[in-house]
Amino acid sequence: MKLLPVVLAAAVLLMAGCSNRSIFSLATPTPTSTQTSAHTPTPTASPAGSQTPATTPTATASGAASPTPTASPGSNVISMVVNGGLNGNVANQGYVSLIVCTPGSTTACQTISNILVDSGSVGLRIFASVLPSNINLQQVMTGGQSAADCAAFADGTVLWGPVQTAGVQLAGEAQVSVPVHVVGATSFAGIPAACSNQGSIVLNSPSQAGYNGILGIGPFPSDTVSTYFGCTSTGTCSELSSIGAAQQVANPIVSLPADNNGLLVQLPLLGGSGAPTASGSLILGIGTQSNNALGSAVPYTTDSLGNLTAVYKSLALTSFFDTGSNGFFFNDSSIPGCTGGDAGFYCPGSTLSLSAQVSGLNGQSASVPFSIADASALFATGNTAFNNIGGSFPRVSDFDWGMPFFFGRNVFIAIQGRSTPAGPGPYFAF
Amino acid sequence: MLSLSRVIVVLNAAMMLGISAPALAVLGQPAQTVGSDAQAVGSRVHTLAQGPAQTPYTVQQFTTPARIEVREYVSPDGTVFAVAWNGPHPPDLAALLGSYFTDYKSMAGQTQGSYGLHHQSLQGDRLVIQSGGHMGDMWGRAWDPQLLPSGVGEEEIK
């Protein structure tokens, strides 16, 4: 075999006297209410969902013409709340509760709250420390080895741990057995360098993360893009070049007996100064119940990565809809940036009414209006839910429709290959 | 508008297969000349743009076995002053950033989650590092502001 050239000479340029580091970006909106316990232990198998969220629409400052979302009660409704997270310091992140059980058990179960809802990833990830010892998950095997997953997010956080089959109950739906990513498991092989080197910080606990887990609701059946490993019984883990679909961390929705083709994200309309918190719903299924009909929503099909196109000020950009991003992130040098701890967000002198043209691969296209207000002034209110914060995005060719996009409209996320009344996923419809 | 002379070296991805730890030119360290790199691996050399060579630099591009595209920006004196990458997940940043990886980790400590899960932007005296995107389509870049050749703008690192 021909070896690669050694590109580096042995000499290293020593960077002397460069120890000063300034932190560039830190947005820490302070919520008015204090976040307390990590989760409420409720070791029963009773449905977690079915509540009617208090959606109190208010006048909006943006020009978005939107329906007034109101979730109907039903076994397919998961309550979702936008607040500051476990540590009370992150704006515009949404959380749900779900029940995790020993697969097939109706008694060895635990309600896990503060599960971060992320349409920019796929699959359920839960910190091991929130699972009580009476819940026994089944290790997923691959090629005679224990399967493990390394999920690196673009904020520099890295999640490591085994892939194990869990019984998962969403709202009042039937329990499904699906591979989940168990994060920070102390009884499993330690994190290999090939995983920890993918980011700046490895998260091992909810207090570090600000959430107890992540529910990835991106429009795909399973996570095919993170780094999977096979681990021996002695704890040696090797990166796998591929892993079977049945061993991948799964989107639990696809295993539901019905309501398994996608879901509807429904969050209330907000006023221009935001709200202390916002309550809405994840409604399972698309066109499967009276509460998840598409109505007038138009589907915008994505590519195999979950991307579509947005044209902003005549520039065609790679675009995605992401509840896991807390603002509209796009580049516009004409908008003043915030300073100090809010650097990276936009702080225009007055609220800007903007729009971008979204186009799906299916040829559907729509102009989407949105507003950008002074993020520093909004964070100073102590509110945690905003429909009008944004900032620059490192990659100038991207347009990230973060959580602000989702307020005040019904957004359907259809899973790849699953049929819906508007055709198969992957698509976002609104 | 800067008009710079650039040479893109595309290392053959096939050459990387089966090699568990691809040789990366580390940020801040010297790289071999483009010519000898190209000769050693038999790779193609593309000249993307030519102009008044005020500040010529080269971009070496290759793909890792995990399908991550890596680009190294090499200054006229042969030093890697910037790196950029894109792919389904981040590359081995310890290998790519070298001694700067420690800086990265300490700079990031207090900012996790500022913009949610899909975006990071850190700026220090000797390291600027940014990443963004969602799982499956992630992107990042890093540079040492003290090594950035005169006349080269950060927007050229992509």
Topology record:
The complex is a heterodimer of chains A (430) and B (158).
Chain A: E1 77-83, E2 93-101, E3 109-118, E4 122-127, E5 138-139, E6 141-142, E7 145-152, E8 157-169, E9 176-183, H1 193-196, E10 201-202, H2 206-209, E11 213-217, E12 227-231, E13 237-239, E14 262-266, E15 278-284, E16 299-301, E17 308-312, E18 315-321, E19 328-329, E20 352-359, E21 365-372, H3 375-379, E22 390-391, E23 398-401, E24 410-414, E25 427-429
Parallel strand pairs in A: 3-11, 4-9, 8-10, 18-23, 19-22
Antiparallel strand pairs in A: 1-2, 1-15, 2-3, 2-8, 4-11, 5-8, 6-7, 7-8, 7-12, 8-9, 12-13, 14-15, 14-24, 16-25, 17-18, 17-20, 19-23, 20-21, 24-25
Chain B: E1 6-10, H1 34-41, E2 44-49, E3 57-63, E4 69-74, E5 80-87, H2 93-97, H3 100-108, E6 119-123, E7 128-134, E8 137-143
Parallel strand pairs in B: 1-3
Antiparallel strand pairs in B: 1-2, 3-4, 4-5, 5-8, 6-7, 7-8
Keywords for this entry:
heterodimer, A: 430 residues, mainly beta, Cathepsin D, subunit A, domain 1, seven-stranded mixed sheet, six-stranded mixed barrel, 3 helices, 25 strands, disordered N terminus, B: 158 residues, alpha+beta, eight-stranded mixed sheet, 14% helix, globular
Characterization of this structure:
The complex is a heterodimer of chains A (430) and B (158). With 430 residues, chain A is mainly β. Chain A has a domain of 137 residues: Cathepsin D, subunit A, domain 1 (Beta Barrel), CATH 2.40.70. Chain A has three helices and 25 strands. In chain A, the strands form two sheets. A seven-stranded mixed sheet of chain A has the order 21-20-17-18-23-19-22, with no helix packed on it. The longest helix of chain A is centred in the C-terminal third of the chain and has 5 residues. The termini of chain A are far apart. The N terminus of chain A is likely disordered. The longest helix of chain B has 9 residues. Chain B has an eight-stranded mixed sheet, covered by helices on one side. Chain B is of the alpha+beta class. In chain B, strand 4 and strand 5 form a beta hairpin. Chain B starts with 5 loop residues before the first strand and ends in a 15-residue tail after the last strand. Chain B has one domain. Chain B is built from three helices and eight strands, in the order E-H-E-E-E-E-H-H-E-E-E. At the A-B interface, strand 7 of A face helix 1, helix 2, helix 3, strand 6 and strand 7 of B.
